[in-house]
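Quick one - inputs below.
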Amino acid sequence: MTFISSVQKINHQLFIKRKLNVHIKRDDLIHPIISGNKWRKLKYNIEYAKNEGYEGILSFGGAYSNHIHALAYATKQQCIKSIGIIRGEQHYQKNSTLSQAINWGMNCQFVDRKTYRLRNNAEYLADLQQQYVNYFIVPEGGSNTLALPGVGEVITELNQQLNYDTLILPVGSGGTFSGLINADRGQHELLGIAVLKEADHIQQQMQPLLNKTNTVASPSNRKWQLLKDFHRGGYAKFSKEDEQKIYQFSQETGILFEPVYSGKMVLALLDLIANDYFTAGQTIVLLHTGGLQGLNGLVEQSRLSTPLSL
Ligand SMILES: Cc1ncc(COP(=O)(O)O)c(C=O)c1O
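Output:
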């Protein structure tokens, strides 16, 4: 199946004042459940698992993981099974993310944090593979080499949709960013906004996913940058002020953002503009990577002072 997400111009006083053309690629609208980069990353993983005759896909995630949520739905839709190795206790099965995943047929196995830390360990993975022989194992966040061509299609689509100078996106594991960098081949400035503190770890994870010409080690002769100072205190951390700014921007633009990924991208954009990073006349594209299901989890955990909605 092919979906081409739309590109919209964002009309905002600040952008008009600064003479910036800001657009947004609405990957959040690709599908009501498998939205954003999840669809892009899972597409060829599911195709591969089916073609190779696997019974299902096994993957990893936290209790509110967008990836787990999307994987459960996408595998059900494609008539294969799924197993989620979930960080945390059994009671999380009742939360909005996992109750839906379980309802769609995912077999959720809860592991403690120490075990979860082994998720990329070769021995642990070999044990899991022995236990679940007919399952294709996909890493946390779906970030493997099969995710790259799916993500790269964002660039193919954008090149047909508009001329732009800079593409901005939120970065977690670095899989999405790697796919964009490989596909773009240095045509545009790509700014990845690290949403967690461990940006050096993200770069390490990106290295094996990047084409040889895109080594993370040569920052001076490349057009992409992982910006490390916009994580707002760490993964899923944000202040009331951050939340208010995201809420206001959503209200002003009519586009919903959440504070874990896309909202941090918005805050970074506003900070970059305030610091005169861009020059007048530049065309900037934001990639809306979806993840709006995560808002329900934040509400359940009483993490939001205003329910973020339009
Ligand atoms: C909504 C959303 N946006 C962005 C990201 C970051 O993507 P990546 O892990 O490929 O860097 C994630 C995490 O996978 C996500 O759920």
